[in-house]
Write a structure and sequence with these properties.
Blueprint lengths: L2 H15 L3 H15 L2 E12 L2 E2 L11 H13 L3 E12 L5 E3 L1 E8 L2 E8 L3 E3 L4 E12 H4 L5 H11 L6 E14 L2 E4 L4 E8 L2
Antiparallel strand pairs: 1-2, 1-3, 3-8, 4-7, 5-6, 5-9, 9-10, 9-11
Length: 201
Amino acid sequence: MTPRSRGLSLILLIGLALPGCSTLADKINEITALLKCQFRLASVSKVSLLGIPLAGKARITDFNLLDAAKLQRALSGGSLPLDLTLDLEVRNPNLSKASLSGMEWTLLLDGGELTKGRMEKPLTVPGKGGVSPLPLAVTLDLNKVLSGKNFDSMLNLALNIAGEGSKPTRLTMKVKPSISVAGQTIPYPGTLSVGAAFGGK
């Protein structure tokens, strides 16, 4: 679907939802601006494995003995939670502001799906090149995501995502923003893909 056809589809949906001309015009301006916004995965921050921060750690020997033992026990116990924040940025090149009321997202690692979710948080992006941060907190169980892999593979993946590992890891997000109109949720027609490589020190 082309940007023009996406815009026409959304405008039609909004027109059916809103009878008021002034309100309709405002919403059309906001969604038209949203269609031209640029999404960027700026960084990954606050990465921790089983609650242990990974900043400054590149290998298992960088963990103290207590933390290393804690990680090994967690793996044998069947759960190894990885927590992180995906720091998205939304840039609005339009003159008017852009808004979204929520967003469905899917996180992929080197093309394979890791996890998915939905953000229920309104965001307004000012016009004239304005940029608004859009942090997404993500938790996933590496023991489930990497079922059958050994502890070293799971740890290396976590370190690469944190940007501390030796091999580059490409994270991609597929996002589908939505807006709220007269109590109805209207999704963006199509999916946006944003990605970046981390690690590889």
